[in-house]
Specification:
With 292 residues, the protein is mostly helical. The protein folds into 2 domains: 40 residues; 237 residues, no CATH class. The chain has 13 helices and 4 strands. α7 crosses α13. The protein starts with a helix and ends in an 11-residue tail after the last helix.
Length: 292
């Protein structure tokens, strides 16, 4: 092949590569803004009845959606739950550690963990069969929601910000202020550096401590907001789990909060996020590790 032809082929290959990377970059930019502005949020039970939660009207709860079973609910009798219980047991020490640091009961963190993982087990069937079931491990998400607790990046960033802002209704107190400090970075670290470090914290496959710590602090901050508003929900795992699912912006303290959240389908039975979390919390499952 002549030099001229080689140059033409090289130019064609270069043009193709440029267009491919441009397309990839475009998709990534669109995905970023979609996540940032909530366009990827899954419409769930609480979204369909948002007025019912925020304005104290009647809402659909898990009790309405999943019939009562005398020997436990269907998800407790699945292979997936057996795999999940083994995986959670392995993480019991680090869950307890994160709960102690954030000042919430370990069982509260585990309640939302159970829902996030069951949802993952029943939607990502290929990964479940190939990895989760054989290895009895938790699934750490790495795209729109992050880590084993499925927390979004912007939510984690808000958890951090609330720890540093005494004027925030979510501010839990000075004793929590430095739990999420980035001690290895300088005070002039860019926002992209912080985002990368946060991503690494939440998506670690070998140590889930930060996933549990961010979740625990989220619960603590929500509890603080409602306590200050005169509507304490410290003993309401159903409401706290609902609020974990629907986010800070929808946490509006009121006298009659309703259980809800994303719809979770398990073997043909649909639960709300908060209702399913509460079913675990009030059960005897893993009670020796995580007492009520």
């Amino acid at each position: 092949m002549s030099l001229e032809k080689l140059k033409k082929v090289g130019k064609i290959v270069w043009d193709v590569l440029v267009h491919i990377f441009a397309a990839i970059g475009f998709v990534l930019v669109i995905a970023y803004f979609a996540v940032r502005f909530g366009l990827t949020d899954v419409s769930g039970i609480i979204d369909q009845q948002r007025a019912g939660f925020l304005e104290n009207a009647t809402s659909t709860t898990a009790a309405n959606l999943a019939p009562e079973y005398p020997n436990g609910t269907p998800w407790q009798n699945t292979e997936e739950w057996q795999v999940l219980s083994e995986a959670i047991t392995k993480d019991a020490p680090v869950i307890t550690q994160a709960a102690a640091a954030s000042g919430v009961p370990p069982r509260l963190i585990v309640s939302s963990l159970v829902v996030e993982q069951l949802r993952l087990f029943f939607t990502e069937r290929a990964f479940y069969k190939q990895f989760f079931a054989p290895l009895q491990v938790l699934g750490a998400q790495t795209q729109f929601s992050l880590g084993v607790m499925g927390m979004k990046d912007n939510t984690a960033a808000e958890v951090e910000a609330n720890l540093q802002n005494p004027t925030s209704p979510f501010y839990p107190g000075p004793q929590y202020a430095h739990l999420l400090d980035y001690t290895s970075t300088s005070t002039t670290a860019s926002s992209s550096d912080i985002t990368s470090l946060r991503y690494a914290r939440l998506t670690s496959q070998t140590n889930h401590y930060y996933s549990y710590l961010y979740a625990g602090l989220y619960f603590k901050e929500i509890e603080t907001q409602w306590q200050h508003a005169g509507f304490p929900i410290t003993n309401r795992p159903d409401i706290l789990s609902t609020l974990y699912n629907i986010g800070f912006e929808r946490s509006i303290p009121n006298a009659s909060p309703q259980v809800g959240g994303a719809a979770i389908a398990i073997n043909g039975v649909t639960y709300s996020f908060g209702g399913l979390a509460n079913q675990f919390y009030t059960s005897n499952l893993l009670i020796n590790l995580f007492p009520q």
